[in-house]
Amino acid sequence: MEDQIDQSKQEMDHLMDGSRSIIFGKYEMGRLLGQGTFAKVYYSRDIKNSESVAIKVINKDHVKREGMMEQIIREISIMRLVRHPNIVEIKEVMATKQKIFVVMEYVKGGELFAKVANGKLKEDVARKYFQQLISA
């Protein structure tokens, strides 16, 4: 297991250089989709079945410094239990000493927050999103 962790760390270092990498022998990491305070999200591909996934890479040290580790663990635990067509599914969670990798269903179109931040939505589009939010 320690060898796999060391290998994944080397693979992540390689990824940060801007090239593609295979992590945990399972996923080909691709382009950066977005980033937040504690994590970066990458478009990725399951090498076994070619399924598109998104992988959130969380920096453990940053989360610990901010005192958010329990909240992150709780959020992941809850999200693993949720099954709903309008909520992104967590497929797998893996970790190294420095990073947490949350493998999620890939959803085309980006985040709703980004769409709203870009300006007003047309009424029919807003209604569709609102119905999905209410359903979830």
TrEMBL record:
It comes from Solanum chacoense (Chaco potato). Keywords: ATP-binding, Kinase, Nucleotide-binding, Serine/threonine-protein kinase, Transferase. This is Putative ovule protein. Residues 27-136 form the Protein kinase domain. The lineage of its organism: Eukaryota, Viridiplantae, Streptophyta, Embryophyta, Tracheophyta. GO terms for biological process: signal transduction. GO terms for molecular function: ATP binding; protein serine/threonine kinase activity. It comes from the Eukaryota. Gene3D superfamilies: Transferase(Phosphotransferase) domain 1. Coiled coil: none annotated. ATP binds at K56. The keyword Protein biosynthesis does not apply. InterPro entries: Kinase-like_dom_sf, Prot_kinase_dom, Protein_kinase_ATP_BS.
